[in-house]
Amino acid sequence: MRVVIAPDKFKGSLSAPEVVEHLATGLQAGFGTSGLETTRIPVADGGEGTIDAAIGSGFTRRTATVTGPLGEPVKADFAIRGTEAVIEMAAASGLALLPEGPTSETAKTATSIGTGELIRAALDLGCRKIILGVGGSANTDGGAGVLQGLGAVFLDKNGNELPGGGAALAAIDSIDFANFDVRLEATDFVLASDVDNPLLGASGAPAIFGPQKGATPDDVAELDAAISNFVEVLSQTTGIEAKHAAKAPGAGAAGGVGYIAIAALKAERRPGIDVVLEFTELESKLKGADLVITGEGSLDEQSLLGKTPMGVSRAAAKAGIPVIAVCGRTTLSAEQLTNAGFHTVHALTDMENDVQKCIAEAGPLLEQLGKHIGVYLAERTGNPDNKEYLNV
Q1: Which positions ≥6 away from 313 have C-beta within 8 Å?
Q2: CA–CA separation, 128 vs 305, rounded Å?
Q3: Of 215, 149, 211, 154, nearest to 184 (Cα)?
């Protein structure tokens, strides 16, 4: 029997590779010493965990020292395979890098410059296709920091260089592209994002995502006006297309990094899970499989909107392979889970009522769950090495 294990991370507990290994260990323990083959594919939806998915698919991990969201140096990982790179924005410009957490001040001053520097690091290694996974960003700077990281200089009316952060864009008067990285012209970008918000306005980046990053209502208004000024100056410098791009679906992703990806990097925007499943080559690895196990920490309404388990479920359904979902907890009804294509769903909260214990002991609990599934599979396949299912 061949089982494909393709889950996302259990946020706050385990990375996707760790989830895979715990499940595989339990499966083998339950199934027996022979007759079971596992294909292990850590997956993500384009946000946090995308680098792990890339590494699990044959990419090589690289590290660069870049500028963090508050200007401090941080070491950020990215992944390369040949001339292709995968960049996880949160590694350079993420909320998790704010030492004291998000505040009103960081909402206005956090920058995405480190993401631009990571792109440049990938270019230095000869990469000419870059997948930019966005999500979990600390910045609301319209993606201006990305341009700064790639060599652009923002000046006020007196010719003084502006600092990073969204609020500073209120003073932008001109942009100097003299040292902008020319290698970008020969580089293809993919923006891996499910966010379809525009850059500005009531459904834009400052209004919708700013409060999650510490912005007060006054901050939201200030940031929206400042980024609007940035769009105006950029369009005067590079052309009217930059103004149109602010209204494009996805421009509001990652505090406006989606905008710069579309307007300046000419990125193709695609659903994150589709991008990840493509570079992990899940479809080809499903051939000949008997069962697929997927999942994530919380299987809920958000999952149905294109998160990892749904993407894996669709791929498995296309191949005619049954799918089991594992999760920390689920808030979905039995009907919703069935309609999502899951044969069965196992939640850690079904095994342990204490949610905090589920989070703290997710690894051992997943091994128990994997063992239970393995025992069931052994029973179904008549594996003579394992009779434990008789006691289950």
Answers
A1: 292, 294, 323, 325, 340, 341, 342
A2: 31
A3: 149
Contact 352, 358 (CB under 8 A): yes
pLDDT digits (tens, 9 = 90+) for 116-162: 999 999 999 999 999 999 988 999 999 999 999 999 999 999 999 99
- Distance of alpha carbon 14 from alpha carbon 2, whole angstroms: 24
Residue with the two structure tokens 């769950």: 369
Sorted by sequence, the CB contacts under 8 Å of residue 130 that are 6+ apart come out as 84, 85, 86, 87, 119, 122, 187, 188, 189, 190
Tokens matching residue 282: 């899940």
Domains contained in the chain, CATH given: 2-43+280-391 (3.40.50.10350), 50-273 (3.90.1510.10)
Return the structure tokens found at 171.
């003073």
